[in-house]
Amino acid sequence: MESKRAAQRRGRAGVQHERDLALKLWEMGFAVIRGPASGAKAKRILYPDLVAIRSGTVYIFEVKTRVKEEPIYIERSQVEKLLEFARRSGGKAFIAVKIVGSSGWKLVPVDMLKPTRGGNYKVDEEDLSKALSLKDIHAEVLGAKRLDEFIGDRGDKK
Asked: Among the options 38, 102, 103, 133, which is catalytic?
């Protein structure tokens, strides 16, 4: 079982990564706010870790930090709160994953999460490999297309 000191250290690292993501989004021109109950285990309130807005598009993030790429398990109630906030705001919900030592963020849309037998959710290695980057959402909010989206413009797709 994890010691109280180890849990506090992990919590401080998580807060630092939330702040890092907020700063990166801010530098990209987003208005960003960190949820006031983030990390406080608030049960009744629907606060996500971060909300970022640009050009009327709302992005909602639950931030997870890991030492290596491995499955991430997320409680059903946490996902439900994230989805409810997205519904109320008209925003897009993501699990933002920071792998310690890597330079980038992996943004997994909540609709990619896989349910577990216990009724919770997980992000697996496949999800992480298909995750969006900060550049992807920045391009999206600016109206730019990714290269793989141009295929449909040539009439090749059904």
From this structure: 38
Q: How many CA atoms lie within 13 A of 99 on its CB side?
A: 15
Upper half-sphere CA count for residue 19 (Cβ side, 13 Å): 6
* 27, containing H or E segment: helix 4-27
Q: Would residue 77 show up in a list of annotated catalytic residues for this protein?
A: no
Q: Which of 61, 134, 114, 128 has its CA nearest to residue 91?
A: 61
Tell the residue number behind the tokens 């997870």, with chain if given: 64
For the stretch 67-110, pLDDT in tens is 888 899 999 999 999 999 999 999 999 999 999 888 789 999 99
**What is the residue whose two structure tokens read 């890092």?**
20
- Please state, in angstroms and as integers, the Cα–Cα distance from residue 14 to each residue in 20, 57, 68, 151, following that order: 10, 25, 14, 39
Task: Report yes or no on whether pTM surpasses 0.85.
Answer: no
Q: How far is CA 102 from CA 37, 66, 74, in A?
A: 27, 10, 22
Question: What is Dmax (Cα atoms) for the chain?
Answer: 58
